[in-house]
Amino acid sequence: MSRTPDQPALTPRFCFNTTALRDFLRISRGTVDDTISQNLNALVTPGTSNSFDPSSTTERIARPVHRRPIDTAACQQFKDKVLFPSWQSRSDVLNYCAGVATSPDPDDPDHVIRETEDLKARERLVDERLDPYSSRYFPREARTEALAMLIRNERMVESIIRSRTWSLVGERCDNGGVEYDKALDAWRRADG
């Protein structure tokens, strides 16, 4: 089974380091979700099925490995030990960083620069007849605003990836018609 990356230490510094944040999410998704077909195929153990089945000769084309159902216990173990912990780890990171993005940022290194630019923009005399572009002012974005936008985007990506992964898991394992978020919540309650 896949080994998911360890969850990083959750600090504001980690969240504001967007490269580290994106790398963690990318590696975690690549380890489990992007390789879901390979992970599910690994659960099919050759030779564990019953001996030769005479009814298999009635089929013209044997079912490929990627379409064979997987043992229920192996599926459940994969979901409980690999899939859901990976999703939970990413959820924890995104939730923590969303909290950081909505909190005041006393350590913002660009705060003084933004304040100075805002003050200059307010004091500037604008004569649009002479220069129609002189009234344009694009304030710098605070790093908390940039982080909030990144988290929103990553949550949308996460939703799409989880939906796709869950549908592939549902093809090979029995999901009982449950949506991925409800299955994850049930796992959280059982695990917690």
UniProtKB/TrEMBL annotation:
InterPro entries: MIX23, MIX23_fungal. Belongs to the MIX23 family. It comes from the Eukaryota. One of its GO terms (cellular component) is mitochondrial intermembrane space. This is Caffeine-induced death protein Cid2.
